[in-house]
Amino acid sequence: MTDIRQNEEHRASASHERGDGSGNEDRTAESARKRLSGFANRQKDAGLDRVSEFASAAHKAADAMGNQNSNMAGFVHEAASELDRLSSNLRGRDVSELYNSVHEFARRQPLAFFAGSFAAGVVLARFLKSSPPKDSERFHPSPNL
Asked: For each successive 10 residues of the chain (145 residues), what is the average pLDDT?
């Protein structure tokens, strides 16, 4: 039994030294990693475009309410400016860099990370719940009832 194991180990070692298979696997994995990273960065940029559009709309809304409630308009302008600043900051960073930053923050401040994650989940759930259903998802009464 040990002869078979030694023979297999010898073949595996010789195959690795020749570069059989492992080089292709490494290149394929690296190619997939690059494609996934590119896709994630494009999605990040698309999301940041939406954030910028939202900030612009918030500025316009604040301008429109400026005469009626200047304090609220100032608050909305400030929030929209922060969104613009956040969008600009994130646009210049790679997704892997953002992931590492979030991961490091979660390690340093786990309570704050979980509280922020919970709050984001609640906000997202409320947003999704308030969204109108698509036409195909609306209830259509059955003619048999």
From this structure: 54 52 78 88 89 89 84 88 86 88 92 90 84 61 57
